[in-house]
Amino acid sequence: MLIWAGGVVFLGRFSLATAIRVADGCSATVAMRRSWTLTRAARSRTTGLWLLGLGVLAVAFTLLKWIGTYVAHGAGLLVLATTDDNVWVTGVLVLIVPVAVALVLLPLPLAPVGVLLACLRERLDHDPEAARVPSWASVE
Asked: Residue 130 — very low, low, confident or very high, per pLDDT cuts 50/70/90?
């Protein structure tokens, strides 16, 4: 559980690194350092937007997987007809296809979440108060 919590913290703190790397054209190390600095003072805002994006992606994945069941049904009927009614192959296919369809279509809702993080980066980068580290939180 501790490893999961640490992973969530690191993911939240480094969530702006891609937007920084693309917008500023800097190296990955500099982008990660800048992301860590920007999210230090805006933990609640970053966490809130990150959880909102995660929720949107979870709902989108569930809906896309549900849509994939219709594709799996058609593919299952086709496989049954072409494999002389082999239920084992059809069963595996029907389990795999909805997840595959969801993963193939997931970039559609993923792009707006990336834009959301890029907007957060822009706001934190140009708002000195939002990116300011409180004096009690600085480690020097």
From this structure: low
